[in-house]
Amino acid sequence: MLGIEKFEDGRAESRFSNLVHWGHGTGWGAVRGLLGSTPLPPRAANAAHGAAVWGQAAMMLPKLDVAPPSNQWGKEEVAIDVFHHAVYATATGIAFEALSSDDCR
């Protein structure tokens, strides 16, 4: 899909992976900001954000041939992946709430 068949070396693959992860996290962080402009309470916005991020990754990664579909993963792999996305959504929600508080304005 991206036209990348092979990387020159492990460093090039690692740089690309970091770029993709930072871009993905930043883009979804903006979505959390948009959820902050809705009437959803912070915990519900965090939950919606986390579900959207994990659901999108679960659909996108197999399409990019980066990972098999999550229904082919073991229970532990699914739990770890959900945990990582929950940590991201929680941290993003905490940062959003801190930055949008009256103290930061």
Compact description:
The chain is mainly alpha-helical and 105 residues long. The protein has helices spanning 10-35, 42-63, 75-99.
Walk me through what this model shows.
- This protein has 105 residues and is an all-alpha fold.
- The protein has one domain (10-104).
- It is 70% helix and 0% strand.
- The protein is built from three helices and no strands.
- It has helices at residues 10-35, 42-63, 75-99.
- Helix 1 (10-35) packs across helix 3 and helix 2 (42-63) packs across helix 3.
- The longest helix has 26 residues, at 10-35.
- The termini are far apart.
Structural class: mainly alpha
What is the first-to-last residue Cα distance?
43 Å
**What kind of sheet is the major sheet?**
none
Shape descriptor reads globular
Secondary-structure element order, N to C: HHH
Strand proportion, as a percent range, falls in: under 5%
pLDDT < 50 runs, ≥5 residues: none
> Tally the helices: what do you get?
3
Mean pLDDT across the residues is: 88
The count of DSSP E runs of length 2 or more, i.e. the number of strands, is 0
Helix % is: 55-70%
Q: What Rg, in angstroms, do the CA atoms define?
A: 16 Å
Counting structural domains, the number is 1
